[in-house]
Amino acid sequence: MFEPPSKLHDGPAAAIDIRCLRVDYGTFCAVDDLSLRVPPGEVFGLVGPNGAGKTSTFRVLATLMEPTYGEVMLDGVDALEDLPAARRVMGYMPDLAALPSDLKVGEFLEFHAAAYGLGSRSQRRERVAECLEEVALSEHARSWCKELSRGQMQRVVLAKTLLHRPRVLILDEPASGLDPLARRDLRNALRKLASTGATIFISSHILGELAEMCSSLCVMNRGRLLASGTAEEVRCQLGNTQRTLTATLLSRHDEAAAWLQSQPAVHDLRLTGAQWVFGFSGSDEAQADLLDGLIRRGVRLCAFEEKRSSFEDILVDVAATNRRP
After folding, report:
1. Which phi and psi angles does 9 have, rounded to 5°?
2. pLDDT confidence of 3, banded at 50, 70, 90?
3. 116, 142, 156, 229 - which has most CB atoms within 10 Å?
């Protein structure tokens, strides 16, 4: 899980350790003193609306640009001071990476394996086969790159990124343009990689997508870190604990309504057919107590459902309400 800046110097070494990172373009500050620490084996997401600072952060992590100031450690390597060593432990997958139309998948990967200097030709072929298996594309080694689907192309690029066994993977919008089935395959591949101890850092502007893929995530807007942790912790930190509950009753409608109206976390109570629908601003424990209270009063329920604001709604709120002073 994400560790706040106050713990940057405590505990075991982090796979990704960013301290006081700032990126300026002239008078414009794209990343404003970003600090975070990601342990090994995490699938960690960075989300934010356009202009949040995601791309600048990723370009610094991928050693493609220098920041105004700050420190970046990748698997214990100073990425700003020792670029060759950082690139040996890091793999970078850009958004919408292109594949050559005149090469087969195996040829494309063997070319990159040779560029990495991965042993003899037979050793390179063996490593290519391993990477294709890791992304569930072993049967496509002889397929032409141009014949692949969008999701398969993304997984081939991921296989290329894995060739030199990086300990830190930096993936910029890896699920961009993928259908639900392809996103599922990509998600499974990333979780498998994380289980080996690799750390995966993913950028996306789709919070719901990251909530599915990641064990933890953080939210940026206008260069600043706003929240971090599990998906539920991010909800709480952004103040979005509002939910809508629906109770379908078989008896004691009036008694249930009177009691619900007396509960401080309940608001906007309304009857729709046999269902009482209302807003609820309490915790999970308070919600469990609410259900228990209805049952103790002899109310017979055949359904009790919850609906929360989507993560997309949360991100829209972030973009609309968080402004620099």
Report:
1. -105, 10
2. very low
3. 156
